[in-house]
Amino acid sequence: MHWSEEIARRIIERNPQKEEYVCAAGVSPSGSVHIGNFRDFATPLFVVKALQKQGKKARLLVSWDEFDRCRKIPANVQAVVGSDYDKYIGCPYVDIPDPWGCHESYAAHFEEEFLKGIAPFGMELDCRYQAEMYRSGKYTKDIIEAIQKRDEIFEILDSFKTKDNSKSEEELKAEHDAEKAVYSPVSIFCPECQTDFTKITAFSEDGTEADYTCRCGHSAHFDFKTNFNCKLGWKVDWAMRWRYEQVDFEPGGKDHAAPTGSYSNSKIISKKIFGYDAPIFQGYEFIGIKGMTGKMSSSSGLNLTPDTLLKLYQPEVLLWLYAKTDPTKAFDICFDDGILRQYFEFDKMLTDCREGRANELTQDIMYNCHVNGREPATVPMALLVQLGSVVNFNVPMLETVFEKIGTP
User: SS3 for 286?
Assistant: First the structure.
């Protein structure tokens, strides 16, 4: 059984009567969304396909976390704007100008870049733009609920912290009580400097209002019922959105999957604070670039976009790399003769399926690679490269050569 089929089985067993299953993915447009992030899309995509194969209604929900605060300006953006954009650290990505001036915001630039890049994969995405979700007031009741239960949330988050064994019990308790007294599950964006370098100094008794100050010197009163320029902290936000969207499955990187990672925290917050059983979770390994060390990162600039890779890989072959590899296992994108071996293996599996020789697992893998409206041809890639180098990759000449050897 393919790993996506196993996850689909668990989803159905957990809630057999649900009308439509929701498989979620989320990405922050902090820079160019790279092929490593693509695993966050491909994993739930295959689960959606597995559910649909079993006659269930399912969709792939994608959250664009454009309301996240900017933490760092990526190297490729700095190359365009220099250090001038450091002033936007602490601002939501949706409020930062596009460095290239071609989109309405920094977030919109990288969102469109990625969506255009993955268009050849034929994915059906149900997109949520978190700036719009927050600023339209859709989460207002959830935010106020989190504020009212902030002491409980603090205790959950604190239980995952590593304790300083060099301190006495009295010191640890005093530190705990001091942190709890000032903890807030929500951050306010300052209307003067647009950053979240704000500090809430007091909440109203019912948690619907607050007083705050900002490091820029601005201070004011904030009404959460009418002012929506605020955002829940990541682990609370994640749990809140699971309930709001009724999510059944969501993957995450191995850092989120760690015993003290975000999922472990958010799972408890989801159940104890929001009364919602956290979705089934699948941690995944990161994707590497053969010959390079370090994981891909939008903020560091060490990344490869889907659009770049589609110059080397057909969409089906890229999907195949993700489909044939268990999410818990890493694999490398190749830029050497390894790519020829990958094409050879893909072509063999595809031919086996077409000629009825494939086992069930191979059929499942190739089912996940199918892109509507496309039928890939199995071309001997190594021969194509060898002959192509002779004729300088002139396409009409290549067609002639291949016809002469009986392989159009």
Answer: coil
pLDDT of residue 334: 87
Whether 402 shows a pLDDT value over 60: the answer reads yes
Exposed e or buried b per residue across 12-50, where buried means at least 16 C-beta atoms within 10 angstroms of its C-beta = beeeeeeeebbbbbbbbbbbbbbbbbbbbbbbbbbbbbb
Beta carbons of 201 and 212 less than 8 angstroms apart: yes
Residues 6+ apart with CB under 8 A from 299: 30, 31, 71, 72, 74
Q: Is the pTM of this model over 0.90?
A: yes
> One-letter amino acid identity for 87?
K
Q: Say if residues 37 and 309 touch (Cβ distance below 8 Å).
A: no
- Report yes or no: 7 and 47 within 8 Å, Cβ to Cβ: yes
Q: 163-202: b or e for each residue (b if 16 or more CB lie within 10 Å)?
A: eeeeeeeeeeeeeeeeeeeebbbbbbbbeebbbbbbebee
Whats the size of the chain, residue-wise? Answer: 408
Place of tokens 């659009």: 307
Residue 157, SS3 per DSSP: helix
